[in-house]
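Support request from a user on the community tier.

User writes: "When I paste my structure tokens into the form, the page sometimes reloads and wipes my input. The last time it worked, I copied everything first. Here is what I submitted, just in case something in the input itself triggers the reload:"
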């Protein structure tokens, strides 16, 4: 995920090997469960009316064995805008960790959730991505070197890997809802994420959908999404057998 949070965690993730696969091996194609429906930008399943203006603060904490390690604070601000007569959502995330501040800005088509632009100032690089359907152009620039140009055309028009929270707000979440969707990640290329709603439970006094977000094989996050507002209230991601990252909304 190309986000300020993912940037902070990249060094941590590199320490852990991938989780072991099942001792029984891979299921045969006949035993595999059916794939959930695939959603693409502009899909009819996406709700056209959803909350596009918001400001949420989060605390990020890593738990490793018996240790509780503060990671930082995240401010996530969304606002509606119009570019060339097209309604868009501008999202700015600011992650503060000590004296370091990472900033990630995205522009997304409000009606289709197709990504338009991503600009990121990370610890060791600057990123610019411009999306036009299946084509992605831009540049990757180390802070102390000239930018490296990027221009690629994918098999399918993707969502932005770092903006899956927008998709959760526009999807008709309910128990047993499941979907898969293509995303573009600068570090991983074209990938597929999956969501599966397992039920509802109260978190911070709010009724929340419980969503399993699958980022890759053996890499999942549990996301609690407010039924009333669509806000992400809490996220838990296992980074290793004894290491977990928790992102919690702070009021």
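"...and here is what came back when it finally went through:"
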């Amino acid at each position: 995920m190309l986000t300020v949070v993912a940037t902070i965690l990249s060094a941590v993730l590199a320490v852990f090997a991938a989780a072991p696969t099942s001792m029984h091996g891979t299921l045969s194609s006949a035993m595999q469960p059916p794939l959930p429906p695939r959603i693409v930008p502009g899909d009819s399943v996406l709700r056209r009316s959803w909350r596009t203006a918001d400001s949420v603060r989060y605390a990020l904490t890593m738990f490793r064995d018996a240790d509780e390690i503060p990671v930082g604070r995240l401010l996530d601000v969304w606002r509606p805008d119009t570019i060339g007569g097209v309604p868009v959502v501008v999202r700015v995330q600011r992650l503060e960790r000590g004296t370091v501040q990472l900033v990630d800005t995205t522009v997304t088509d409000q009606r289709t959730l197709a990504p338009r632009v991503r600009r990121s100032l990370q610890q060791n690089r600057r990123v610019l991505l411009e999306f036009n359907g299946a084509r992605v152009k831009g540049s990757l620039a180390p802070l102390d070197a000239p930018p490296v140009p990027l221009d690629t055309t994918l098999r399918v028009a993707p969502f932005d890997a770092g903006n899956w929270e927008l998709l959760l707000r526009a999807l008709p979440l309910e128990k047993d809802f499941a979907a898969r969707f293509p995303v573009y990640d600068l570090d991983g290329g074209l990938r597929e994420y999956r969501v599966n709603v397992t039920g509802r439970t109260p978190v911070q006094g709010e009724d929340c959908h419980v969503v399993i977000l699958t980022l890759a094989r053996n890499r999942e996050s549990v996301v609690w999404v407010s039924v009333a507002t669509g806000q992400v209230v809490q996220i838990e991601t296992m980074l290793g057998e004894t290491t977990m990252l928790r992102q919690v909304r702070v009021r």
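Agent notes: The reload is a front-end session timeout and is unrelated to the input. The chain has a mean pLDDT of 88. The CA atoms of residues 48 and 139 lie 32 Å apart. Escalated to web team.
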